[in-house]
Design goal:
Elements (H helix, E strand, L loop, with lengths): L1 E10 L2 E11 L4 E6 L5 H9 L6 E6 L2 E2 L5 H9 L1 E4 L11 H12 L4 H14 L15 H12 L7 E5 L7 H18 L2 E5 L3 H7 L2 E6 L2 E6 L1 H5 L4 H10 L1
Parallel strand pairs: 3-8, 3-9, 6-7, 7-8
Antiparallel strand pairs: 1-2, 1-4, 4-5, 9-10
Helix pairs in contact: 3-4, 3-5, 4-5, 5-6
The structure holds adenosine-5'-triphosphate (ATP) and magnesium ion.
Length: 242
């Protein structure tokens, strides 16, 4: 489970999240929708523990993220995969090294074990043959796959966070990335948060949906509940997409 309780975040004077509540049950995927600048990435940062709310708290299973010691935070992040906006690969490393890097940083696995795991992960995302390629030689969709392989490098990724994983991809590639995200969820029974602008992709990967506007949650629920919302912003958002 991931739960935000009355979380308020401000950058200086600007209140970006104003006492928001959010709950993602274990093994489910919550999609966060909202306009650019509405605070979606900020929510992910709070869950990662890289940003501390002014008030409120963030829970991940039995852990309160803001209260973890450095060592506990490290252990928490070992079970967390994050796919950053734009993928954010290291351009000077091969695909294999990009995935291995996380394992070098976060585990004490031997080089042989790291290599074995990197191959397994790249196979999972369908990129085994790209092991020695550089990120610059890959397509956008392939780079996203590498970012997902890297995010699930943990032995047992309990939490997966995706920040706009399909932005900038063509519809076919977007769909294949969504399928991959669903496969990750099934395989690891992970608890997931996906930020996206795209309603089609949201419906593909989401079990639950939350709309953020003016620093507040304006609606949350299943697809059916969202579609029946009488909020004019949500109605417009949904009608623009169809
Ligand atoms: N480090 C920061 N310092 C100051 N303001 C920030 C910082 N990070 C984000 N903001 C501001 O907080 C607001 C929310 O940012 P956030 O990145 O969470 O939005 P977002 O919903 O992810 O937007 P997008 O869809 O464009 O990625 C924006 O107005 C942004 O300018
Ligand atoms: Mg963002």
């Amino acid at each position: 489970m991931i739960r935000l309780e009355k979380v308020t975040v401000a950058y200086g004077e600007q209140v970006v999240l104003d006492g928001i509540d959010l709950e993602v049950p274990t093994g489910k995927t919550m999609v966060i929708l909202g306009e650019s600048g509405s605070g979606k990435t900020t929510i992910l940062k709070c869950v990662l523990g890289t940003l501390h709310p002014v008030s409120g708290r963030v829970l991940a299973n039995d852990l309160e993220v803001g209260k973890l010691t450095d060592e506990e935070l490290l252990r928490f992040r070992q079970r967390m995969g994050m796919v950053f906006q734009e993928g954010a690969l290291f351009d000077s490393m091969t695909v294999g090294e990009n995935v291995a890097f996380w394992l070098w940083e976060h585990t004490t696995l031997s080089d042989d074990k790291v290599e074995e795991r990197v191959r397994m992960l790249l196979q999972f995302v369908g990129l085994e043959s790209s092991l020695d390629q550089m990120p610059s030689d890959l397509s956008g969709g392939m780079r996203r796959r590498v970012a997902i392989a890297r995010a699930m490098a943990a032995e047992d990724p309990a939490f997966m966070l995706y920040d706009e994983p399909t932005t900038g991809l063509d519809p076919f590639t977007s769909k294949s990335i969504c399928d991959l995200m669903r496969r990750v969820q099934r395989e690891f029974k992970s608890t997931n948060i996906v930020v996206t602008h795209d309603l089609t992709d949201a419906y593909r990967v989401g079990d639950l949906f939350t709309f953020i506007k003016d620093a507040k949650v304006i609606a949350t629920g299943t697809r059916q509940e969202i579609e029946h919302s009488s909020d004019p912003f949500i109605q417009t958002f949904i009608s623009l997409d169809s």
